Amino acid sequence: MGEFLRKYWFVSVLAVLFIGVLIYYVADMNKDNVSTPQVDGTDVVISTTAGNVTSSELMDNSTVAEPGILFSLYRNAVTDQTVETTSEIEEQAKTMQKNLESNIKADATGKTKASIMSQLAGMGFSGDNAIAEYSKVAAKIQVLDGNFIREHIDLLSSYVPEGARTISILTMNVEDAENLSDDEKAKQEEIQNALDDGQSFGEVAAEYSDDTDTKDKNGFYGYIDSSNTALDSAVLEKALALNAGDTSEWITVESSTPVLYMVHVEETDPAKILESDDDTAVTNLVNTIISKVNGLEAFIIQNAGQKLNVTFANDEIKTQIDDYINQQTSQLDPSILALNASDDKEKDKTSSESSANSSESADSASSQSDQTSSTASSQEGE
Q1: What is the pTM (predicted TM-score) of this model?
Q2: Percentage of the chain surpassing pLDDT 70?
Q3: Average pLDDT over the chain, rounded to whole?
Q4: For the purposes of burial, counting CB atoms within 10 Å of the CB of 124, is it exposed (0-12), middle (13-18) or buried (19 or more)?
Q5: Does residue 32 register a pLDDT over 50?
Q6: What is the pLDDT of residue 343?
Q7: 287 neighbors 281 (Cβ within 8 angstroms)
Q8: Angle between helical axes of 22-29 and 66-82 (0-180°, round to 10)
Q9: Backbone conformation region of residue 257, classed left if phi is above 0, alpha if psi is from -120 to 50, else beta
Q10: Cα gap 157→270, rounded to integer Å
Q11: Which of 16-20, 92-96, 167-171, 274-278 has the lowest mean pLDDT?
Q12: How many CB atoms lie within 10 A of CB 34?
C-alpha cells in the first residue's frame, strides 16, 4: 500500500496560514464532512494506530517530523489553490479513492487500513474523509507536476529515461509459431497487405489484433522505456530499437500459447509524449521523471507557492518550511533552481513597476490638483 500512495503522490500545495496551527487546515479541510475529533478539548491533528497527536502536543514538542508535517500541510494547500477542480480531476480522484478502499476491504485483519491511515496522517490528512481528500489533492498534484514538467522539459531532458516512447502493438495467437497453419499464414498475409496498402497500424490492429486490452484502442499500448517489465523482453528489445513511425517484423513470444507480435513506435520525443491525448502515457512519463529527480516534487511546490504569494503566521513556520524544501532540493541542477530565482526577479520587477505606476499616478493627481487650485485662485482674483 505504501507503494500505491507513493505512485500517486507528487508533491504540491497551497498556503498555510494562521499559525493557530497546522491543525486549522486539517479541520477546515474536513469541516463540511466530519467534525474534528478532540482529546480533552484539544483538536487532534493526526490519528494513527499508535494514538492521537493533538495541536498542543505538536506545537510544544519540536520533533524531527514536524517540518515534514508542516510541509505536507503547505503542499496540500498550495496544490488545492493552484489547480482548479475539474470533472476529470474528480473522476481521477474517485478512481484513486476506490482503489484504496478496495484494498482496505480486501484485508480482514485491518492492517492495511491502519497502514494507509497512518501514512495519510503523515501527509496531513486525518479523519473519516482522509482518503477522499488525499485522492483529490493527489489528482491535482498529477496535474501540477505535469504542467511544470511539460513547460520545462528542455531543462529536464537529461532525466528522461532511456528509450522513453509510446508504442502500439498487434498480436496474433497461433498454435505453433514454428509451423503456422494455412489459416494463420493467410491472416499474416492479410495484415501485411493492409499495411502495404497504406492503412495505418492502428486501423490494422483494430481489425486484426488478438490483444483484447489494446484492440479497442487501435492497438495503442502506451508509454514504455528501458526499465519496462510488463512487456516480454524480446518485444521490449525490438520496440527500443525502432525509430518513431517504424513497425517491426513479427516477433515470437513463447508461452503456453505462442503469440506473434508486431510493434509500432508512435513517438519518441518526450515533449510530444507530454502533449499526448492519452492521460496514462503522460502520467507515466511524468511519474518516471519525478522519481528520477530527487527534490523535484518539493521544488514544484515551492515554485507554485511563490506564485501564490504565500504569507505565514510567523517567521518560525516559514523558516522551517523553507529549510525543509532547501534540504530536499539541495541536489537539483542549478538550471532548475534558477527558475525560482527568475520568478522572484519577475515578481520584484512587477512590484517595482506597479509601485512606479502608483507613484506616477499620485504625482499626476497631485499635479492636476495643483493646477486646479491655481486656476481656482486665479478665478477668485479676477
Answers
A1: 0.71
A2: 72
A3: 80
A4: buried
A5: no
A6: 54
A7: no
A8: 40
A9: beta
A10: 8
A11: 16-20
A12: 13
Q: Amino acid identity of 110?
A: G
Task: Note the helical H segments in the chain.
Answer: 2-8, 22-29, 55-60, 66-82, 87-106, 111-122, 130-151, 153-156, 182-196, 201-208, 233-241, 270-273, 279-292, 296-307, 315-328, 334-381
**Which candidate, 264, 226, 269, places its Cα nearest to that of 247?**
264
Measured between alpha carbons, how far is 302 from 13 in angstroms, rounded to an integer?
A: 8
pLDDT per residue as tens digits for the range 79-125 = 999 999 999 999 999 999 999 999 999 999 999 999 999 999 988 89
The answer to whether the beta carbons of residues 4 and 100 sit under 8 Å apart is: yes
Q: Which region, left, alpha or beta, applies to residue 218 given φ > 0 means left and ψ of -120 to 50 means alpha? A: left
Phi, psi of 354 (to 5 degrees): -65, -45
CA torsion through residues 310, 311, 317, 320, sign? positive
Residue pair 120/134 in contact (Cβ under 8 Å)? The answer is: yes
- Of 125, 124, 126, 104, nearest to 115 by C-alpha is 104
Question: Do 305 and 79 form a contact (C-beta atoms < 8 A)?
Answer: no
- Return the pLDDT at 271: 97
Which residues does residue 312 pair with via DSSP β-bridges, in sequence order?
Answer: none
Count of Cβ atoms closer than 10 Å to residue 130 Cβ: 24
Which grid cell sits at 73? 500541510
The x, y and z cell numbers of residue 236, run together, are 521490449
Q: Is 101 exposed, middle or buried (0-12, 13-18, 19+ CB in 10 A)?
A: middle
Separation CA 214–CA 200 (nearest Å) = 15
Q: How many CA atoms lie within 13 Å of 363's alpha carbon, on the beta-carbon side?
A: 6
**Residue 276, exposed/middle/buried by CB under 10 A (0-12, 13-18, 19+)?**
middle
Question: Which DSSP string corresponds to 24-56?
Answer: HHHHHHTTTTSPPPEETTEEEEEEETTEEEEHH
So what's the pLDDT on residue 310?
78
**Measured between alpha carbons, how far is 296 from 254 in angstroms, rounded to an integer?**
41
Contact 295, 280 (CB under 8 A): no
d(CA 21, CA 27) in angstroms, rounded, equals 10
